[in-house]
Amino acid sequence: MTIRRLSENIVNQIAAGEVIERPASVVRELLDNAVDAGATRIEIVTAGGGKNLIRVTDNGHGMDGDNLQLAVERHCTSKMTDDLGDIRTLGFRGEALPSIGSVSRLSIKSRRKGSESGWEIQVDGGKVQGPRPAAINQGTVVEVSDLFYAVPARLKFLKTDRAEANAITDVIKRTVLAHPHIRFSVSGTDRQMVDYSGVLGEDALLQRLSQVLGQEFCDNALEVDAEREGVTLTGYAALPTYNRGNALHQFIYVNGRPVRDKQLTGAVRGAYMDFLSRHRHAVLALFITIDPAQVDVNVHPAKAEVRFRDAGLVKGLIVGALREVITGARHRASSEGGDEMLASFRPGYGSTPSPTGNGPVSAAALGQKWVPETNRDLKYDWQKSPYRSLDEFGESTQAAFDATGAPSADIRETDPPAIEDQAHPLGAARAQIHENYLVAQTDDGLVIVDQHAAHERIVYERMKAQLARDGIAGQMLLVPDIVEMPEEDANRLLAHSEAFKQLGLTIEAFGPGAVAVRETPALLGEVDCKSLLQDLVDEINEWGSSSLVEEKIEAVAATMACHGSVRSGRRLQPAEMNQLLRDMEATPNSGQCNHGRPTYVELKLADIERLFGRR
Question: Where in the sequence is the domain holding 92, given as residue range(s)?
Answer without folding.
Answer: 8-196
